Amino acid sequence: MSKYNYKKKPAHFSLLLLAFALVFLLQYNPVRASAASYRVDDQAGLLGDDQRSALAAELDRISERYGTDIVILTLGEDISILNPTDYADSYFENQNLGLGPSHSGMLFLISMADRDWAIATHGEAIEIFNDYAQEQLLDAILPSLRDDNMYGAFSDLTDFSEKTLDNAERGIFAEEKVSRPFSFYILPPAIALLLTALIMKGLKAPLTSVGFSSGASSYLLDNSMQIANSNDFFLSSSLARTAIPRSTETRSGGGRGSSSTTHTSSSGRTFGGSSGKF
Amino acid sequence: MSTLEQYKCPNCGGAVLFNTELQQLVCSMCSNVYSPTAFEGNEELSGSEEPDHMPWSFEEENWQEGEADQLLTYSCPSCGGEVLGDATIAATSCPYCDNSVIIPSQFSGDLKPDLLVPFQLDREAAKMALKRHMKDKRFVPKVFKDEHHIDEIKGVYVPFWLFDADVDARISYEAIRSRMWSDSNFNYTETNKYAVYREGSVRFEQIPVDGSSRMPDDLMESIEPFDCEAAVPFDTAYLSGFLANRYDVDASDSIERANTRIKTSTEQSFMESIRGYDSVRSVSSSIKMKNGKINYALLPVWILNTKWQDQLYTFAMNGQSGKLVGNLPLDKKAYWRTFLIMAALLTGLIFLLFFLLW
Predict the structure, then answer these.
(1) Distance, in angstroms, between B234 CA and closest chain A CA?
(2) Secondary structure in 3-state letters for A203-245
(3) Looking at the partner chain, which of A188, A211, A214 has a beta carbon nearest the beta carbon of B347?
(4) Crossing angle for the helix pair A150-169 and A131-146, nearest 10 degrees?
(5) Does residue B342 carry a pLDDT above 90?
(6) Closest by alpha carbon to B107, among B209, B207, B15, B245?
(7) Banded model confidence at residue B71, pLDDT cuts 50, 70, 90
(8) Is A235 in contact with B328 (Cβ distance < 8 A)?
């Protein structure tokens, strides 16, 4: 009995271990399990194997380096989605994306059915990939997307993400592109020319030393001036009043997050993002 | 034709020249030193020679009326060579023997100067002053700075009229005093106008006005001031070794310039006496002069001439104070090169500022 018991014990133990492992594996996100691939979910099959693995490797490196998940999702023409933003949010939540305590991450989605794109940002990434960063990102990749150069677009996205994350780490966030008026380009050369002319005139002035004297003050006898009569009469007074200009513009300082548009997903989590067509 | 004067050493007969350092006459041969006044009364000894009469030398009809009057010929008391001069020349040097030639008749009677300020600085000082003048000046062509380019240096006693006057002035000014303040909504500027009246007197002494038409007036005014306190009574002995001209612009023609300068300075000095206003401008002035006195003086000027690229550059140095003036040529290439570089750098800099601040 004791022998039997003794023999049975290891079998129970391994079963138990197997059960634990199973539970553990089930609890763990299945996508997470294959950590190398979940960041490029090419359901539409737009990328070749090499391209997918190259992108995934790059995204893995960046995501882990900066602690923000960068994920690309493509949906085929067979999947029709009503609202790309909602879909992106849901995918983000369902796949349990995001790193760190804030589940920081950015998901970029394209749907081939209606040629939609959507961005979902969560956690710290909301501030990092703010509205201006998203604009810049789309400026960079939309032309490639329109040309169906998906790999090119995603490569650009990868590069852009790294640059943006790196900037954010140094406290630099994307800012509104200022459209500069014409005078911005005309004034500096004009001012420079004027200044140069004045300085050069000053430098040239010592070359000329001949000129008429304006007066004869050198020959005015010291202390010879006698004022016999001196009167100061008040004539008139005028008062001018000008209103102090008030600045109507109240710009909240360009601090972090001030330029990120957010919304709340159906589950109550806060997402940032945008969407459109390509 | 008139007699000439040449100061000769009573000891050896050599030419005696005025020495600026010693302020005495020094014999160029035996270095004996004489006081400038030592030769007074010696005119009959030194000035006894007659100028040449040369009836064959020119044809009358070739000279326009008045032109011949302006040319005078003298015969050098030392070598007999012909010295040609215009009507104003009073002291010069013989072109053949380089001896100093003084023409006393140019200073006789009404033409006799009242005063003379002797040269305090010599030829070398003038050369040094010119060097200093060009040193550290940007955009002066390098070739020009080379001292070998001074073609001519001459010490000239220039005729000047000196004006003394007491001036009575009555001047009206308009003065403004303003005050600024603001409250939460407005900026206020209060401007108070005043009528300011000043009446008084001031005295000017020895304002020089160039009495030689050959000397540019602006050049002469630029080397002012002259300190006529240091003037001595005129004696031709001081002229030995220098050039001199008698005046050819009358005192009456010079009065206007003196008046203008007196008026300007009077208004200015009375204006300076007005205090406590933000701005003052003169509205009307009435200036009356009294006790006006005009003296005729010879003042010492070093003239340095140089020709560069077919243009004559004249420098003048006050022979008393050492103040040297003269316009310098501009190295256009260097000037525009610097201009372009500076403009480019400034443009870049201002663009940078714009980017940072816009």
Answers:
(1) 21
(2) HHHHHCCCCCCCCCHHHECCCCCEEEEEEEEEEEEEEEEEECC
(3) A188
(4) 160
(5) yes
(6) B245
(7) low
(8) no
pLDDT band of A24, cuts 50, 70, 90: low
> Cβ(B319)–Cβ(B298) under 8 Å?
no
Which pLDDT value is given to residue A246?
Answer: 67
Q: Name, in order, each residue with C-beta under 8 angstroms of A278's C-beta and a sequence gap of 6 or more.
A: A110, A115, A116, A117, A142, A145, A146
Q: How far apart are the first and last CA of chain B?
A: 82
Q: Are strands A105-111 and A116-122 parallel, antiparallel or unpaired?
A: antiparallel
Q: Distance between CA A73 and CA A25 in Å, rounded?
A: 24
Neighbours of B86 (CB within 10 A): 12
- Chain A from 191 to 230: CB within 8 A of any B CB: 191-193, 195-197, 199-200, 203-204, 206-221, 224-230
Residue of A nearest to B257 (CA): A215
Question: What percentage of chain A has pLDDT greater than the value 90?
Answer: 21
User: 3-class SS at B125?
Assistant: helix
User: In whole angstroms, how far apart are CA A193 and each of A196, A199, A202, B21, B346?
Assistant: 5, 10, 14, 52, 8
Assign B293 to helix, strand or coil. Answer: strand
Rounded Cα distance, A180 and B44, in Å: 92
Tell me if chain A has a CB within 8 Å of the CB of B196.
Answer: yes
pLDDT in tens, B156-182: 889 999 998 898 989 999 999 999 998
- Amino acid identity, residue B49? E
Beta bridge partners of B189: A240, B180
- Vertex B313 angle, CA B312 and B319, to 5°: 130
The minimal CB distance from A216 to the residues B261, B354, B358 is found for B261
Cβ of A211 within 8 Å of Cβ of B225? The answer is no
Question: Distances in Å between the alpha carbon of B191 and those of A217, A240, B104, B177?
Answer: 32, 8, 66, 6
Query: For A204-223, what is the mean pLDDT?
Result: 85
A12, containing H or E segment: helix A2-27
Angle subtended by helix axes B332-357 and A182-204, to nearest 10: 140
Token code pair at residue B76: 């050098």
Domain boundaries, chain A: 1-33, 36-175+260-277
Least confident range from A171-180, B219-228, B280-289: namely: A171-180
Query: Any alpha helices (H) in B19-99, and if so which ranges?
Result: 43-46
Whether B204 and A221 have beta carbons less than 8 Å apart is answered as yes
Look at B261 and A209 and tell me if their CB atoms are within 8 Å: no
pTM of structure: 0.61
Q: What is the ipTM of this complex?
A: 0.71
**What architecture does CATH give domain A36-175+260-277?**
Roll (3.10)
